[in-house]
Specification:
The structure is a homodimer.
Chain A lengths: L2 H11 L4 E4 L6 H9 L4 E4 L3 H15 L3 E6 H17 L4 E7 L15 H5 L5 E4 L3 H16 L5 E7 H5 L19 H13 L3 E5 L6 H14 L2 E4 L6 E3 L13 H8 L4 E5 L23 E6 L5 H11 L24 H11 L5 E5 L7 H4 L6 E5 L8 H11 L5 E6 H4 L5 H7 L4 E7 L4 H9 L7 H5 L10 H7 L4 E4 L2 H13 L4 E6 L1
Parallel strand pairs in A: 1-2, 1-3, 3-4, 4-6, 5-6, 7-8, 7-10, 10-11, 12-13, 12-14, 14-15, 15-17, 16-17
Antiparallel strand pairs in A: 9-13
């Protein structure tokens, strides 16, 4: 077998069973090997940002890495922004990036570039395989690196001749470290803080916002008087009826400062200390007050659930009863569309076990609280702040969970960066309903222009925030890629169109005119 | 004035009068400064690859850098592939990349990344400005770096506080070096080779394929018996009626080897020694025969035209008559669509002074020879091999030359990487006719799969090369972004639709069904 086949077989043996791909000439042997190897589903994306964003969504839902297949430095470059987002979500991912044959790189052919240099700022692990005989072992090392808790971006560069030359066979996965247990000192310190009975926040992230973690955290809070908040953004919150609800640190700096101002202690549990998303003139970067101490119970890569269970024991909360949300969908609103009513409608209409991808940005600020009494569902957010993740993330989540409905809550400005994701959803017949919020602007930037102190913007500045002239027709764009849809200009139309989307087994767009 | 305004004023004073932009929060002061400064046209792109590709097209037509405005590391990353192409085209470009405020970077907020690290593989010059008082001087240095022959990619990183803090005023452009003259030794060596009367190729690139360079090269060839070829890809060839025609080194390796096999000498004139675009098993990387010597008359950054004029003098060719193409458009073909007939139709219908952007890939192989007798026009190609350049490049060329018609010859697979460029064309009312070749596949990869030795591909492999299921409806996609169009299923329909596009003052799509 050649190097490409040894790599594909190694990936499959290592539990990597999906490849999101946008290949070119230098990856043709890898593509050809897919025919000869069972067990690897191959999903084509027509832009690399779709490929890497889909791998993120797949990883968030399965806990396992997908592979990606990218074409030399520029193909990698096109996927880097969603690799950034995936890295911040701590999603495991194995990128295979083709390169020129080793002997061809010296000739500086047009596509030559410093691929390792481009990969490094957005990867935790980078290697160029030197020969066909090393490809399998390097691939196994990449999988192990990706799976190292809490999940890493591993990028393996595959020169074309290492794919087509003869290899030695497949390689076994090296041992993957488990999540490191939290030490007794961290537990003891958390117990000490909680016993002070000073205003204390348990700030949750990572696995602490899955349902088991939330339940443990809620017990500790109930037994100690501490309060709970989740990070502003989270890769995947398990919520809805039967689950413990948690609010999040607000995104706007002033609201975040207000939400955190009473606390004297923050205990981080799979979370990072809260800082502003951006700096603003005359506003602080650190969101906790100066007299608030930051403590760490468990870092995101540590065994967060074990730490929570241990801490619950120590504070006598192992059996404390906690309140979970009732199934109490609000009534479906009617009349003119407002953001508040849209949130309420989502709370009413969200199907059971939906996977909600939230890239609604300014349109979606009310949706999270208004959906807490919906049937149980997952809520996924953009962790790296590079917009254009939603459609790819929903694509990958749908590939991972064919028995669940994916709901992409999608702002229009963000959607434009990766609209090609719709085509992959259509090709694969993925069960995705896209709710596209068409407000014809980068609405967040209107606020931000004022927030950074740039007052009274003129026409030239406002034109940079405006998606009108021409207005984008999202139903045309969806139809052009094989995704049917319907426009909603009233709440009644929204409910009907959303219902049609939910009833459809494949992708469907609901364009909401705001 | 603040740092942002000092930078915008410095750019304008340095001759940079267009900014292709996709800004975010950290760039809001730059955006606000645009209102206060005259002389900078600001053009919004809805994906960063449109922004950088447009800057390339602008630079190729004006010889001057445009600025781009990009949002932190991921925004830069999304623009890198077309920066790669621009760098290979030696287009001058000034990228302004916003970053977090200097004091905010330590907090590792979600969008934090190693921006310099990401920029470096695709930039010739990279700097992070440390304070508002240095921004103007750093901006001036970036412009000078960009304009250093033959053109460079300069990336200036602008932390948000260096934009909003008080600056000292604008900065003057440092001296920009001119093109270095070629020394007498290079001339003498070329003369010596040409006098040997052995089979000699003058291989042309850069300024040597503009009309003045081609005329000088043709005189030298006529006087010495040498032959002329242009590089496989060229940033901008001036051609058509009244100009000297030149063929190009073919892209397929076997054809290139055949075209070059008789030569014993290649004299490089603004060109690089010909190498294969990709390596293939059992095919050489170097396209010239082993007994062929490579000589350099002028490197691409040197004064190529002066070297040609000098050499023409030395070989007594200063007044040699050369043949230029007649205006002899072929008849417009009818009936079923074939690629050959499409090339002929373009030769017949190309408007005078058109700017042709050729990203037709496999569909376009016949178009170049069949348009040599069209009215005078420019022909632009992808220099870096990262597909997805065509629509952005045409956008920038149209901004640069509002009095000329831009014709984008665009393959469907390539178009999907940067289809957002159509929206910018619609917003700016750019005079672009897009001829979209819809063959429903990455057709080139079908050949490449065989070329690399991967025979008898199965369904999984072929699916990765196939853009069907669902078929993409390009008229829907164009309409969704405000670009009207028409479909052509016969040569008669093509001629009618192309005529409508040429007659239209704004963007128009002709979708050619293959």
């Amino acid at each position: 077998m050649n190097g490409a086949e040894s790599l594909v077989r190694t990936l499959v043996a290592g539990g990597v069973d999906v490849c999101f791909a946008n290949p070119g000439t230098s990856e043709m042997h890898f593509v050809a090997a897919l025919d000869r190897v069972d067990g690897m589903r191959c999903v084509l994306g027509l832009a690399e940002t779709v490929v890497t964003g889909a791998a993120d969504g797949y990883a968030r839902m399965t806990g396992r890495p997908a592979s990606t297949l990218l074409h030399l430095g520029p193909g990698l470059a096109n996927g880097l922004s969603n690799m950034h987002n995936a890295g911040r979500a701590r999603s495991p991912m194995v990128n295979i990036v083709g390169d020129h044959a080793t002997y061809h790189r010296n000739y500086d052919a047009p596509l030559t570039s410093d691929i390792e240099g481009a990969a490094r700022p957005f990867s935790h692990w980078v290697k160029t395989s030197p020969s066909a005989r090393t490809v399998a072992a390097d691939g196994a090392a990449a999988v192990a690196a990706a799976m190292t808790p809490p999940g890493q971006i591993a990028t393996l560069i595959l020169p074309a001749d290492t794919a087509w030359n003869e290899a030695d066979g497949i390689a076994k996965l090296p041992p993957v470290p488990g999540r490191a247990p939290v030490g007794s000192a961290a537990i003891a310190e958390a117990v000490r803080i909680l016993r002070l009975k000073e205003p204390t926040l348990l700030l949750l992230g990572g696995l602490a916002v899955r349902s088991a973690g939330l339940e443990l955290a809620a017990r500790i809070a109930a037994a100690t008087g501490a309060q709970l908040l989740a990070q502003t953004s989270n890769p995947r919150i398990e919520r809805g009826a039967g689950r413990v609800s948690v609010e999040r640190v607000p995104f706007p700096v002033d609201q975040a400062l207000a939400a955190l101002k009473e606390f004297r202690h923050v205990i981080l549990i799979g979370a990072k200390a809260p800082v502003a998303f951006f700096a603003y003139p005359n506003k602080p970067s650190v969101l906790t007050p100066e007299n608030c101490a930051i403590h760490t119970l468990a870092r995101v890569e540590e065994d967060v659930l074990h730490a929570l269970a241990w801490l619950a024991d120590e504070v006598g909360a192992a059996k404390t009863a906690v309140a979970t949300e009732a199934l109490a969908p609000p009534p479906v609103p009617t009349g003119e569309i407002t953001l508040q009513k849209l949130g309420q409608a989502l709370g009413a209409l969200l199907p059971e076990h939906a996977i909600v991808v939230d890239e609604a940005v300014t349109s979606g600020r009310s949706f999270f609280p208004l959906t807490r009494n919906a049937p149980p569902h997952d809520w996924m957010q953009n962790m790296g702040g590079s917009i254009g993740l939603g459609l790819p993330l929903g694509t990958g989540a749908a590939v991972a969970c064919p028995d669940r409905k994916v709901i992409c809550l999608q702002a229009d400005g963000s959607a434009m960066y990766s609209l090609q994701g719709m085509w992959t959803q259509a090709r694969e017949g993925l069960d995705v309903t896209i709710v596209l919020f068409n407000n014809k602007s980068y609405a967040i930037l209107r606020n931000e222009l004022a927030n950074v102190g740039a007052r009274n913007p003129g026409r030239k500045a406002l034109d940079m925030l405006d998606l009108g002239r021409p207005d984008i027709d999202w139903l045309d764009l969806a139809r052009g890629m094989g995704v049917p849809g319907q426009r909603a200009t009233s709440m009644e139309e929204f409910a009907a169109a959303f219902g049609r989307g939910v009833a459809s087994p494949g992708p469907y767009m609901v364009e909401v005119m705001l």
